[in-house]
Automatic annotation (TrEMBL):
Pfam family, one: p450
Organism: Gossypium barbadense
GO molecular-function terms, A-Z: heme binding; iron ion binding; monooxygenase activity; oxidoreductase activity, acting on paired donors, with incorporation or reduction of molecular oxygen
Protein's recorded name: Cytochrome P450
Subcellular location, principal: membrane
GO annotation, cellular component aspect: membrane
Localization terms from the record: Membrane
Keywords: Heme, Iron, Membrane, Metal-binding, Monooxygenase, Oxidoreductase, Transmembrane, Transmembrane helix
Cofactor(s) needed for function: heme
Domain of life per record: Eukaryota
Presence of the UniProt keyword Oxidoreductase in the record: yes
Keyword Nucleotide-binding: no
Family: Belongs to the cytochrome P450 family.
Chain ranges passing through the membrane: 6-24
Amino acid sequence: MASSISTYALLLTFFTTLISFFFITSRSKQKFKNGKKLPPGPRPLPIIGNLHMLGQLPHRSLSNLAKKYGSIMSIRLGNVPTIVVSSPEAAELFLKIHDGVFASRPKIQFSDYVSYGNKGLGFAPYGSYWRTVRKWCTLELLSSSKVELFEPIRRREVESLVDQIKRAAASGQVVDLSAKALELMENFMYRMIIGRSKDDKFDLKPLIQESLRLTGHFNISDYVPFLAPLDLQGLIPQFEAIREGCDNFLEEIIDEHQQDKHKGQKKHRDFVDVMLSHLDQPMNPNDESELHIIDPTNIKAIILDMITGALDTSTVAIEWAFSEILKHPRVKTRFSKKS
Ligand code: HEM
């Protein structure tokens, strides 16, 4: 008994010393980095930093902390030094005046898994690679000429949906508009990005939705990277399942496009064809310092990011538009008169 008490006492002393050491070093690190002072902020705890202060509603907790520490505040999320900005003037400094410095998204474990090591547009660090990928996506998919080119497809799909809803309404059926909006966006997106209509073989929707959930999920490994090998939340098997599902889908799409090209069956090039035309080519042939050869993982990551970026955002925008119309009878009446 006495020996177990002394073991506990020893362990307690050891951990107290360790925690005090972390606490002191973390405090001094917060004060100075590269010899420069960080903005003021609450004192971080060892290992978790200020994570415990975020609570259930982080935006409100941060707003309360900003009242005490100012509109440019420094906190630590686990091991990650973070600056919280909470006034329009300060936001302008970060997002406009010094935007190049802060343009990269933070690295997260999930995007590293699913985006082939952050090779898509969403999580690639700001720089020459990201700028070129953005240029390709804008020119080939998002420019006004491309948006106009797809107008007949959008019109056809919307007309078909309106017909379906009219028929359902005539027979008194309930219509799940959220599901219909998602289906509509899926149909557009498949046509625009992979140049084909959807079939049962390719159901990427559940994988994308799970991806979005996992992107926003709190992952302790993102904040305390030395714990990553332990995978305390058991997230890695979920990441791997998404990666495998998406990769199978993308492999099939790429194979299909390559076969169609060899058979000479293509009337016009879609986004995947354009991306495949860069395969095995240097990305910026005129810039020898940034000679990046495009491989299939780059192409798969770019296609996946465009599909992920398009699907949920546009669906949610439609859902919100509908709910706002329903909440405002004046707008609803004007709409009914116009149609
Ligand atoms: C109503 C529809 C949409 C909304 C509200 C929306 C909103 C956003 C927002 C807020 C961002 C983050 C911007 C930033 O961090 O600076 C973003 C990024 C992105 N969006 Fe959209 N988006 C929409 C439609 C689309 C569509 C149709 C596509 C693809 C065809 C797309 C692809 C992307 C991609 C790839 C990114 C990452 C860009 C980057 O990090 O450089 N989005 N979107």
